[in-house]
Design brief:
The structure is a single chain. This protein is α/β, with parallel strands linked by helices and about 400 residues long. It is about 45% helix and about 15% strand. The chain has a nine-stranded mixed β-sheet, with helices on both faces. Strand 5, helix 10 and strand 6 form a beta-alpha-beta unit. The longest helix has 21 residues. The protein starts with 10 loop residues before the first helix and ends with a strand.
Length: about 400
């Protein structure tokens, strides 16, 4: 008989919270600002969340809106309205990405159908966007690949480059964010975005995350970057969101070629909060990403993960910035400061008052500031004893 998913006894709570809200804010306070930053459109979000009746209704509603945008893209392309077509296909890809993500079951036919939709629409967007976003893969272990996009900045010569690391709720297509307003690309930086073990395309190829392989995958992407004439190999930065705040540190601790690391939406403290106390989808998704479907074995995996974490972090030498909210429901200020005290590298903290994990309320100011800090630090560096912890007041 089929087993119920982990923490299934809380589904009734989850479903009722969804009914109480017109959007995702009831589960992720501030998430709408992040959705907009990533290129989602209000019209698509409204079309999905006005119709949600419970957790199981979410994937088909995202897929339905994706199909609407895909058809609009095809109609615009037929009429030779290239820019409109690119916008519709981009929106369709993002919607299919959400649809597949929320089915954390290996081999599920709907997950495969929706993921194929993501690749089809995002591929069409890349074809007609004109920005030369190219797709690549690199083997990091025998028979296991990481998959990534490279988007060169305009102009000749080698340039600073940012490798974007998605969170556990994202895919590489999300990570590039709005390609018409990408804050890194706008500032003359090459942009690269990867699916590491446990993410999107890796999941579809059964490449699961473990304790060490994300760092290995990231290092192979850096190999690719360093071989390019348009990349300044001395100016490679990492930008990670949410669970990506861990993976960026793991990559930089493993690979000294990383110059600068920025993490946003802190996930650097003990894992019991996200996997045992927060809403149950987090645990289900990471169990899928690690392909550990037994609760006791997953708890052992998480315990080991936390036990080695500080030992990994103290090896990082790169310039480091963490951007977080002081009301983050997944990582408290005490946990953040404990983590920062472990680091032996130049470090900085921007702690926003009154802001929860997604930080969407301050996205319009925060992301340009992050991109400026990244470029300045890649170019000029920080002193070895740099330790600056700033509280950003509300408003």
């Amino acid at each position: 008989m089929r087993r119920q998913p982990s923490r299934a006894s809380q589904n009734w709570i989850f479903d009722n919270f969804l009914k109480l809200s017109d959007n995702e804010d009831v589960l992720h306070p501030g998430i709408l600002g992040i959705r907009y930053f990533r290129g989602f459109k209000h019209q698509d979000l409204e079309a999905v969340y006005q119709r949600i009746t419970g957790r199981r209704s979410i994937p088909p509603l995202w897929a339905r809106q994706a199909s609407v945008q895909e058809q609009k893209g095809a109609d615009a392309l037929k009429a030779n309205r290239i820019q409109s077509a690119a916008g519709h296909y981009h929106r369709a890809g993002l919607c299919f990405g959400r649809a597949q993500h929320l089915i954390p079951v290996d081999g599920h036919p709907k997950k495969k159908e929706y993921y194929d939709g993501l690749q089809r629409c995002y591929g069409k967007f890349r074809e007609i966007h004109g920005g030369h976003i190219t797709k690549h893969q690199a083997e990091f272990e025998d028979g296991k690949n990481t998959y990534f996009y490279f988007w060169p900045a305009e102009g000749e010569g080698p340039k600073p480059t940012v490798l974007l690391i998605p969170g556990m709720d994202m895919v590489k297509e999300d990570a590039i964010a709005d390609p018409w307003q990408n804050v890194f690309h706008q500032r003359g930086m090459n942009v690269c975005a990867m699916d590491g073990p446990g993410h999107g395309e890796c999941n579809m190829n059964q490449v699961w995350v473990d304790q060490t392989n994300f760092a290995k995958a990231g290092s192979k992407v850096i190999d690719f970057l360093c071989e390019r004439d348009d990349v300044d190999s001395s100016k490679i930065g990492l930008f990670g969101q949410s669970m990506g705040t861990r993976w960026t540190v793991e990559i930089a601790a493993h690979d000294d070629r990383v110059n600068t690391v920025i993490g946003q939406m802190a996930n650097v403290g003990p894992s019991d909060i996200i996997f045992n106390h927060a809403q149950p989808n987090f645990r289900r998704i990471y169990m899928y990403m690690s392909n550990i479907l037994d609760d006791d074995k997953f708890d052992e995996f998480v315990e080991e993960r936390d036990n080695i974490w500080h030992g990994v972090a103290e090896k990082m030498k790169a310039n480091y910035l963490l951007v977080a909210g002081d009301m983050d429901e997944l990582c408290s200020p005490d946990d953040i400061n404990e983590f920062l005290d472990v680091l032996n590298c130049p470090k900085e903290l921007w702690l926003y008052e009154g802001i929860f994990h997604p930080m969407g309320e301050v996205a319009a100011d925060m992301y340009p500031a992050i991109a400026d800090w990244m470029l300045d630090t890649l170019n000029s560096g920080l002193s070895s004893d740099h330790d600056n912890r700033v509280v950003v007041p509300e408003g």
